Amino acid sequence: MADWDVLWINANLATMAAGGAPYGAIENGAIGIQGGRIEWIGPMSDLGGKPETLADDIHDACGRWITPGLIDCHTHMVFGGSRAGEFEKRLQGVSYEEIARAGGGIVSTMSATRDASETDLVTAATPRLSNLIREGVTTVEIKSGYGLETATELKQLSSARALGKALPVNVETTFLGAHALPPEYSGKQSDYIDLVIEEMLPAVADSGTADAVDAFCENIGFTPAETEAVFTAARARDLPVKLHAEQLSDLGGAALAARFEALSADHLEYASEDGVKAMAKSGTVAVLLPGAYYTLRETHLPPMDLFRKHKVDMAIASDFNPGSSPIPSLLLMLNMACTLFRMTPEESLAGATRNAAKALGRVDDRGTLETGKRADLAVWNIKQPAELSYWGGYNPLWTLVRGGSTVDLGALEQAA
Ligand code: DI6
Ligand code: FE
Questions:
Q1: Residue 104 CB less than 6 A away from ligand 1
Q2: pTM here?
Q3: Is position 413 within any domain?
Q4: Quick check: 415 pLDDT over 80?
Q5: 242, part of any domain
Q6: Which of 106, 113, 246 to probe ligand 1 with, by most ligand atoms within 8 A of CB?
Q7: pLDDT at 220
Q8: Cβ neighbourhood burial of 162 (10 Å; 0-12, 13-18, 19+)
Q9: Which atom of ligand 1 is nearest to the CA of 289?
């Protein structure tokens, strides 16, 4: 009788398990999969039998590299419209902040998202999400935050869940009601926060469509006190929190997030050493977003050396959204993380696997190739793992495996 449902052989494995060889590498290895989970992983020489006696379904990687399925732990994937016009304005010299203050930016996407049906939103997101999957992504986080009213926030979250059913990807959802002030609350920011806490959050929690709660703590977003109020309400409902913090200025968001044991604090270009130390203490992951840094032509680097010095885990995500990061490509983010943020290729790959899983509170279940974890595998036409961040605008994915089953990449190409 076969030991496993599926067996991958002759593969170089970048397990990304912490603490061992670079990339957690096992050269010339094999993976036995049972019930969608990794049941055995090790060198071919330890297999203990001929492959055909061990599984019915055998795949020969022919020396290719296998990594954990990639995880994009921060996206704003579900939205209506596009902001190409705003892009043109920015190129003429108008800043992101000026556009936001003039009622453009997030608020213009809000109007288009309110006007869209759930079907419209799913249809618009499908080719972009397909692009991520075709690059090896098996888990994606999707935030709301373009409704800024209860019904549309719920519509965004259920669209995100629907995408997870329609496409071969695991979707984690985040409620981001405190993303921007909708125009109807102009001059009444604290009333809007009351709405988020008293109406939206309970409705979202009751609907069961959100896995976490996020906020945008910034001069053009919400104050630390308002963020704290939203977080208190989220924790009271047992929802974990995460925060857009220190993207444009240092408001102490990283330390605030840490006080609430946030899963992650994201952006962090302007984070202080005290903020970084607080994150280290609470185990909060630093989610770095090179796509937004690049698109906004930021010049203030996140404090990379402080994250390393205080041993804060770093994740990398696309922040895919229509304004500050219209780039649905996680591979390009790996490249940018190295080129712009000076991460090592190994750090950047850990950022899109193990540390991204941790940023979603899922590291016990995925993010590395280890026994007991989901059999989400990306098989690459590469000779060394550094190629995943070396190439730019080029996709070396060969095969994608989700929960042990091979994904039909051809069908996804049609969806795109
Ligand atoms: N920070 C971001 O990078 C996105 N939201 C946020 O708070 C940008 C969203 C947008 O410009 O539409
Ligand atoms: Fe974001």
A1: no
A2: 0.97
A3: no
A4: no
A5: yes
A6: 106
A7: 86
A8: middle
A9: 3
